[in-house]
């Protein structure tokens, strides 16, 4: 295989999951009967990752990470549903921990500072809470922020809105130009 | 047990080698049965996610962790994704003795077409010196053939499949019959100029790819559209695959029968006549076994799988294969050593970006031990595959400013990885497991293959030289990395049934015939007596076409 494929393939996965994902390797062999090949889970999450309150906060914060500007934001792009589906069925249970911990820390701080649940806080207050997390001024705040932002970014830039509106999508470029003026597009081309 | 003489030849495997064997043999008039253990994938309609953006692929085309860990824990090293999952082997259903012996990633396909659907497509001729290297270095494993034996077949294959690249006139990397190259971008052109002037004798050239840059209307193939989604299957037929190129040709003769889901377990053999008399396979859907017969058998199941099938072809109660009179079957297994990466930022040109997505990049051919042994601390050499690109700008903070910032690009970045030649070692071997069998009753493959001092020194040099070249050329933020070197990881596994003149020290002769059975030809990676450092598939195709020509001439002669 060529390196460029390896780089392309690795970039997305490593960015999302980090590099520490290695399967337990030893596999029993034996002439066992063929079991069914698992399929990728689709449809609604198989487990509820969030309580309604957590879901409301996660949804609000996703839209603070990528808000609506001249293009739609994270909520319009379906990021909250993607995020819960990924944490329920496509990631590992360990991936939920920093997200749930961070949401709890943000909720606690919101109640303390603003006397209101974080999901009901104003956008400015939510931004302040996210900033505290980003700067690690909440318990495990930076860990939450990095993981949460990466999930939102992944969900957004793999959504139809992210790929075709926020970025420029060329389904069939037809040619390659390795000296194309950025000023002709002023956007990033989707991968 | 069904018996049949409906076929003149049986081809086992349908990857780059098997597909070419089927095309050549049918076009020369033979009725051919091609068996493949994978499920059928038809050109075009079988490419479920061809042209689909991530939001139209399950799980946004990110392999779910649980599925990777349960079923694709080896395939993950071959870049399996939801969009191409069905092209890959299921590691749970089809295991090997991974937890015993030395670590090896046996990355296998799971569909008709084999790895031709998912390969990297980099296509190089070997040089005369590659075929002479073992003899020159005094290493066990002299090739019975030389460059001149293969050159006309390289030409034949290249003209048929289409290879894009640039003429360079390098004696150590012979030019192919080229279509115009996939272009370099502005940053690569800059780097080429700097690197070649600062390091005389070293070159940075266009990649050589089986992606075509001109239409081939006679084959119903359209030139590359620069989508860089090759691994999903390409309905344009722009890269070489069995489905796009050799299967249609073989079918057009009306003499091909293709049987998918057919897991070959072993070959039957007539000891007195020294001939293969049957091919036994299990239908993976029904579990039924049968034996099919033909006068000629082409074994092209992949280097390791062909070796396994040969090892499992043995008298009842014996551990010794019919084809292993020499004691070399399963030995001298090689892969390219891999996982040294070097990268850096290319200054300037920040107003320019890439339009379109290339399926390849650039190549720095080997520059060590070119004219014989040099005093560099190791034998043979390595080349780098790389590309310059611009990633989207990294996120800063969050909110509208982050979103706006991510509409820009990071600076031009150049990244490359070294692929080094592994020497053939007798003790780098595969064998059949003593008591574990798979669901088809075939003993599991056990791998005892490691990279050794020569390979590790070569990688250290590749890292040092790579950094020196990128720094010397003026790149900034130059970093390098060296990952775990696991054989199989480069997916260039070779050897196991090497060619040689001496039947006492090799498995195949110079025409790919088994020394122990003149009607058995093995034309995939198993045949290789050394590994060069360039991607091997083009050589497998050329040697397959050459072997098919020989086989048919022998049949007509008989």
Automatic annotation (TrEMBL), chain A:
Q: Which domain of life is it from?
A: Bacteria
What's the protein called, per UniProt?
A: Gluconate 2-dehydrogenase subunit 3
Among the Pfam families in the record, one is Gluconate_2-dh3
Q: What is the lineage of its organism?
A: Bacteria, Pseudomonadati, Pseudomonadota, Alphaproteobacteria, Sphingomonadales
UniProtKB/TrEMBL annotation, chain B:
CC cofactor? FAD
InterPro entries on file: FAD/NAD-bd_sf, GMC_OxRdtase_N, GMC_OxRtase_C, P2Ox-like
Query: Boundaries of each Glucose-methanol-choline oxidoreductase N-terminal domain copy?
Result: 20-313
Any one Gene Ontology MF annotation carried by this entry is: oxidoreductase activity, acting on CH-OH group of donors
Name the UniProt record assigns to this protein: Choline dehydrogenase
Q: Identify one Pfam family in the record.
A: GMC_oxred_N
Q: Which residues form the Glucose-methanol-choline oxidoreductase C-terminal domain?
A: 424-543
Which family, according to UniProt? Belongs to the GMC oxidoreductase family.
Superkingdom field: Bacteria
Which terms are listed as keywords in the entry? FAD, Flavoprotein, Oxidoreductase
